[in-house]
Structure of Phosphatidate cytidylyltransferase:
Amino acid sequence: MSARRRRRAAADREEEEEEEEDGSDREVDLDEGLVDLDLRNDLDTPDVPPPTDSTPEILKRALSGLSTRWKNWWIRGILTLAMISMFFLIIYMGSFMLMLLVLGIQVKCFHEIITIGYRVYHSYDLPWFRSLSWYFLLCVNYFFYGETVADYFGTFVQRREQLQFLIRYHRFISFALYLAGFCMFVLSLVKKHYRLQFYMFAWTHVTLLITVTQSHLVIQNLFEGMIWFLVPISSVICNDIAAYIFGFFFGRTPLIKLSPKKTWEGFIGGGFSTVLFGFVFSYFLAQHQYFVCPVEYNSETNRFVTECEPSELFQLKKYSVPLLLQAVLGWETVNMYPFQMHSIALSTFASLIGPFGGFFASGFKRAFKIKDFADTIPGHGGIMDRFDCQYLMATFVHVYITSFIRGPNPSKVLKQLLVLQPEQQLNVYRTLKSHLVEKGILQPSLRG
């Protein structure tokens, strides 16, 4: 019998002896025994198996004569161009496809993180762990996407009687669904695995916070206008690529121990490149209604529309060039869009703070002795490896919009008014009329 089995057999005998003792002493000793067992389980936690090489055979043969460093360079470069091309294709297909893309990325990132936990503790066969994890994912998505439907598709919902009940009691239904999962978790608790099960319960909820909540914010940003979606995401992608290129060719000084391949040269070069890219890219996008208009749902055509009169953010204005730059550029004034100034703030965040999402992910992977979250994309790792900075960026953009950009939205208020009862609409009309008369905008003699 192995030493490990003897230890477990001894622990079982100790527990049987404890059950024969006095009630209060039995509870104390049993808790101590379970703590010891959990500590042994933690020490015996197996390493996650390394991911397999998913590089297509055609690329392996074509790059077989290169060194490992240059082979990885070409694989990453080719796959990056392929992903960017697919991203542009989805942009062309419209905002609805972008929402589906965000949802798909969210589910895949959740799967990669949950799978790591499952592999690490797989030998203990925790009951219902994976099933409950996916159930909670479904509940949280039902809540957030239901809120979005109620907020942006209210007129459409009011025309469908079968949906009115779901929207009216949406939060109660969401809470009831979560409570069902919570009760199932409590019922799944088994002796000797209590602490481990609570580890996994917390693991699932933190993963939901990272993936579902942030992806919901991404979609909220998209509804403000596709430009608020494209510029931040493109800035993070640009910073990642530029930092890799500068670090590959000029990197000499290590940046952070969590990610040994990151260098100060790559960090600084990527930062300047990202700010410049965001400024130029914003100028191009601001010229087109398709990118700057808020995304709205037309209930008559059952389609998303992006047509509007562009706000002041997306109208050219003349700015005076600082004196120090006038001598260099030879310009006294320059025409630009106000949004370009905001793009500098977004790009700066993507360059300075965004990489910390990657450092956080690096620390997570080091904690579990893995190189990548998965092997989905050859040369890049998993989906989470490519979007670890995007979620942090999504939160910043949402906070930035609500703090410095967003004002009252007349179209949104009108949609909410249209779903009111006729008597409520008349009360709103009378109140608004009285307010306008007091302000002197309407004449008191005007009849409603």
